[in-house]
Amino acid sequence: MTGFKGEKMRPRLNTALLTGLLLVMLTASPGAAQDVTVVRRAAFDIGAAVIKCIIADVDVSTGLIVNTVDSLSEKVDFAEDLSRSYDGNLSKGVMDQGINILERFKAVAVAKNALEYSAVGGRLFQKAQNGRAYFVRIRQETGIPSRVISEQQAAMLSFHAVRHALAGKAGDLLVWDIGGNSMQMTIRKPDGGLLFYLDPMAAVAFKNVVIQTIQKKDINITVSPNPVSVGEVSQARAHIQAHAAMTVPRYICNKLANQELTVAGIGGVHYYSVPEVIGNRKATYTRDEVATALNKWTGKTDKDFNSEYAESRLTNLILVLGYMDALGIREVRPLKINQADGLLAAREFW
């Protein structure tokens, strides 16, 4: 009798266990049940002049961005602050501002159910005496895993993000990134590796060259070079064109001269500054459009530009035109891509 009852109860226990497991499966997150390889991430690009955050769903098995949930951006003058530092340190004020922005961006990401977070900063934070200590503070105060990366790492992240965005349609590709404090050009070499051109001559740095070298003013007192005269524009163009001709690697110059390349322009200068001053946004902008815009805006004041970045709007045109003329670049394809896009899919940063 006892053995008979035991035999009858065993299937009932199994049925109860299976029912419980089924209930757990049914009440689990639908998204998790459908695709466990997709994770919602928040990637932060702490730049020289802007902090950006991209919240996106990423397939971690392939590194592909499945869906971009939100994109955030806010100006913070790290480069300007450092250029006026007497001891090579970022000021407490600008560092506090950066932390506040990161905390606000993280709150948005949390509200949108991001599960993983990662932040990177580049050359400026290597240059600043307290740059690496600042990233320790970011990790401690915001809880966001943060690190300072090399210029090569930054350029690599951007290059692969552009390749992904163009889905292999670009053919031979040169990625030209101009930010507030650094410029990179990245191209594939015949052996499959990447060749990097890394230069500090970017938006803030070149603006200060115009103020200090061309206008003979003190950058600790003068923030904006505007209005820039016709003669000063001519001198600045000659200066930056000679700089580009002397510093860009011969391999890049030859590829631009002898073969059709897609020149993808990324960073705030290419995507925002130049098209806004040209007056339209198209798939590409040309060398002649930049030159026409430069003529139109020469001599204008900060107020005329009606932008929070007014002080560098004209000098950005000179910078881009100087490089285009020196290297024979006829047109640039601006893309809204930054290090955060590349960071989302880079396994070593998560």
Question: What does this entry look like structurally?
Answer:
With 350 residues, the chain is an alpha/beta fold. The chain has two domains: 38-149, Nucleotidyltransferase, domain 5, CATH 3.30.420; 152-334, Nucleotidyltransferase, domain 5 (2-Layer Sandwich), CATH 3.30.420.150. It is 51% helix and 20% strand. A six-stranded mixed sheet has the order 8-7-6-9-11-10, with helices on both faces. Helix 8 packs across helix 14 and helix 11 (268-278) packs across helix 14 (310-327).
Give the low-pLDDT segments. 1-13, 15-34
What count of structural domains?
A: 2
For the sheet with most strands, the description reads: 6 strands, mixed
Strand portion, in percent? 15-25%
Report the mean per-residue pLDDT as an integer.
89
Shape type: globular
